[in-house]
Design goal:
Length: 162
């Protein structure tokens, strides 16, 4: 038998074996994850967080306490600018893919694989730094205590003025 046909046969067998192993792995992951997911009906009933209402003895409302006040709104009532703002923040390629942005996933994997821990940690913690500070330190700071963006800009070339 010619070497090319032998190589082609081994490549086909290797592909078939890897396909079977991949299907087995995918099936295993599905059954492990599916058993931990909540029931679909439980997801359809949404209970919004409500503030605490404080009333006087006569029934008059004195105050509302609570961090969140959520009221359901139909998506048709949301202005188009708000929808576009959420899409721009979350996924600027939203209309270019069908649910999974493979280019974005590949970029994230590449970032995790090729950068040092400090930069990846900074990317992950910057939203937390912007939101609040904890009692143990400020989220989004480096081990030297300075914000990630300040440390990254201090270690790189100066940015041009706009």
């Amino acid at each position: 038998m010619p070497p090319f046909r032998r190589l082609l046969r081994w490549a086909l067998l290797a592909f078939a074996a890897l396909s079977v192993l991949g299907l087995l792995a995918a099936g295993t992951v599905y059954f492990v994850v599916a058993s931990k997911l909540p029931d679909v009906e439980a997801l359809r009933t949404v209970e919004l967080q409500e503030p605490m209402y404080v009333h006087a003895r006569d029934g008059k409302l004195i105050a509302l306490f609570g961090e969140t006040r959520r009221y359901p709104v139909d998506i048709k009532e949301v202005p188009e600018a708000i929808k576009q703002a959420f899409i721009a923040i979350e996924d600027n390629r939203f209309y270019e893919h069908h649910g999974v942005d493979y280019k974005g996933v590949a970029r994230a994997i590449w970032l995790l694989a090729t950068t040092d821990d400090e930069r990846v940690r900074c990317v992950r913690l910057m939203p937390a730094y912007a939101v609040a500070a904890s009692g143990e330190g400020t989220p989004g700071t480096t081990s030297k205590g300075m914000p990630c963006s300040a440390r990254n800009s201090a270690s790189s070339e100066p940015r041009p003025k706009r």
